[in-house]
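Project standup — Tuesday

K.O.: blocked on the structure for the chain from last sprint. Re-posting the sequence here as requested.
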Amino acid sequence: MNEPELKPLRFDTRVRLAIFAPIGRLLMRFGYQPFAERCSWCHKDLPGGAASYINGRRVCDHCAERGRRRMVRAAWAYVSLSAVLIIVTGTGVVMSFRRGDPDAWEILPIMIAVSFSPLVLLWGVLRTMKAANKHAEEHELAVVRFSALRAFLKESIPGDGL
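H.V.: unblocked you, prediction finished:
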């Protein structure tokens, strides 16, 4: 079988590697621990299993409550923005019909889309956050299972350098 021919990397690729490859090492040097039992926001230690997730990040109960309050305020802001847009666009459409604009029927679907766009965006953000939380929880469970399997193998197979 023929050996694949290796081509040298392009100059810009080598520069990118030289710049971005050490970032992971620097993060570890400055204390970043991706699977640490800490809150992602306040960096307090978390007891095992006492974590909540916000946007895929592991947080303590205090930060989870703060995040929940922030999200509720943001959701109400989106709902009130939609209400204001519905009132303004409704007024504009009614005024167009009163004037006898022939294009009023064409602008009506656009105005409806503009009015309800904040609610659609809010729905999309919430759905994305729930998916990120579910993915983070599944990922953490997989890490815990792998750690348990690794500990079991280390105990049962002496001399293995896992």
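K.O.: great, moving the ticket to review. The mean pLDDT is 83. The beta strands are 52-54, 57-59.
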